[in-house]
Amino acid sequence: MNVTDSYNAILSSVEFDEFTPEEQETFLRDLNSLVFRGAVLRTIERMDEGTRDDWYRFLAQNPSQEKIRLFLERRVPGADLAIAETVESLAGDILAVTTY
Does pTM surpass 0.70? Predict the structure, then answer.
């Protein structure tokens, strides 16, 4: 399953179309936050020790999400795969508890 299919599976499993526009906005914001945090954690796991040290110094500067994304893409091989892995894993977990 690719990222788009995974997102669509999540939205379908929670009957997203039946949410109010406000609920949809909140759900998407929360989902994207979960994906971002999960992808960051997966990417940290891929870091070598030197990069991890740089990462913690970088975080001390309180960077924006965009700067975090750029740091990870530039410094960690396979960082882009972390997003896909996170979405697919999250979709699997959500589908496991919503499918009956």
Answer: yes
